[in-house]
Amino acid sequence: MSTPDLAGSAWRKSTYSQQDGACVEVAGNLQGIVAVRDSKDPAGPALVFSRPEFAEFIRCLAADDLTALS
Question: Which of 29, 31, 34, 59 is the most exposed place for a label (fewest CB within 10 A)?
């Protein structure tokens, strides 16, 4: 997958964000992908997932089973 241009993305913070700013932001308004970044470093790198990959990632997090991702 080539690296998409995320410059015009609409980012939103997680509802689980901490008061101290330790949180992630997600951009899901992109064509077929979901991007995730550290809100403290908006100019930094972002993880990019296909929508099915992101759904599986979230499913594994909810099941507390990150071994399924390997």
Answer: 31
Mean model confidence pLDDT for the chain:
84
Sign of CA dihedral 29, 13, 49, 52: negative
* CB of 39 closer than 8 Å to CB of 26: no
Please give the Cα distance from 57 to 60 (Å, whole number): 5
Give dist(CA 69, CA 56) in Å, integer.
8
Taking the mean position of all CA atoms in its chain, how far away is CA 45?
11
Distance between CA atoms of residues 40 and 31, nearest Å: 25
